[in-house]
Design brief:
Blueprint: H1 3-13, H2 15-18, H3 46-49, H4 53-87, H5 96-127, H6 139-149, H7 153-180, H8 186-216, H9 219-237, H10 244-252, H11 257-293, H12 299-307
Bound molecules: fe (ii) ion (2 copies).
Length: 312
């Protein structure tokens, strides 16, 4: 595609340029919390149900805040930062057109964060429920931080590009599957689907950029990055097995420690199965992308992936 066509496409398609504000309220199912209950593994347990409708709504509303705050975090603390690093030339050999595209990504992501936070504020006004937790980081951002800290300085900018490329290639499915949940109310589903519309462009941008960057990296750098990737992916995709966030919500509902243990134990199979299904699909998608970038062309990288249970 010609450079002008790519730029025109952003002007024509970017949701920040064309979509109206997403308003909560006045829609069917309005009396229900916005977040899909199917993604909340504790809200329909008999112990929770026995506390009444308001407690169930409180739990789902907190889950919704948590999810949306995490969207804000990923956009502002990771993808925008990575786009700024590209813009400011942290990775060598990136031309002005690629920098222009980095600007489109950070504008889009700033808008996605704005939409998510605007929706949180509307939910707070409508429900009168204050968020229990204002997350400052999350497991994915922490995993990226840990992996970066373990690398020598000269590999960090390329690792950041690699990490944002992987993250942006799986986010579409994560967000789309949330919007597809049948019990999500219309405004929440619209929020998810509007977001997804921009992500195809982002994933193409980052994967093209990463492929061209990989091709010019010295072999010793390719090998170092490729060999640490399986460990990073394990950390990045791992779940909160202790389910601390859900415990915290249940404690806030005055549910006793013994009952919390029971709610978590009884819902653990569904919780684990749901995350394992998503992780399995994500691993397949990431491996495909990693192969396309060229990482698996190197025997030592292929071996590292094979040793970590990937069929290369
Ligand atoms: Fe986004
Ligand atoms: Fe994105």
């Amino acid at each position: 595609m010609l450079q002008d066509d790519i730029t025109n496409l952003w002007y024509e398609k970017a949701t920040v340029r064309h979509t109206p504000r997403i308003l909560l309220g006045g829609e069917s199912g309005d009396d229900h919390p916005s977040y899909p209950a199917a993604r909340c593994f504790i809200c329909d347990h008999p112990i929770v149900q026995a506390r009444g409708h308001a407690v169930r709504s409180y739990i789902i509303t907190q889950a919704s805040y948590f999810f949306l705050y995490n969207v804000v975090l990923m956009e502002t603390r990771f993808v925008i930062q990575s786009s700024l690093a590209i813009l400011h030339g942290d990775n060598e050999g990136i031309d002005d057109f690629q920098k222009l595209r980095a600007l489109t990504v950070l504008i889009d992501e700033g808008y996605h964060a704005h939409v998510a936070l605007d929706y949180i504020l509307q939910m707070r006004r409508k429900s009168g429920i204050e968020p229990l937790i204002f997350p400052k980081s999350n497991r994915k951002i922490d995993a990226i931080g840990r992996a970066t800290a373990g690398l020598p300085e000269e590999l960090r900018s390329d690792f950041q590009l690699l990490a944002v490329t992987l993250a942006e290639n799986v986010i579409t499915e994560e967000i789309a599957s949330m919007g597809r949940e049948k019990d999500a109310i219309k405004s929440f589903a619209t929020l998810m689907m509007d977001h997804v519309k921009d992500e195809g462009r982002h994933s193409n941008y980052f994967s093209d950029l990463m492929k061209s960057r990989w091709a010019v990296l010295p072999r010793f750098r390719q090998e170092a990055l490729g060999q640490m990737l399986p460990g990073f992916m394990r950390d990045y995709l791992c779940i909160d097995a202790g389910r601390e966030f859900e415990s915290q919500i249940l404690r806030a509902c005055d549910i006793s420690p013994g009952e919390i243990t029971q709610v978590l134990r009884d819902s653990d199979e569904a919780f684990t199965a749901s995350h394992e299904l998503m992780t399995r699909k994500t691993r397949v998608r990431l491996l495909h992308l990693i192969r396309q970038i060229g990482v698996l062309d190197l025997p030592v990288c292929r071996q590292a992936f094979a040793e970590n249970g990937y069929s290369t």
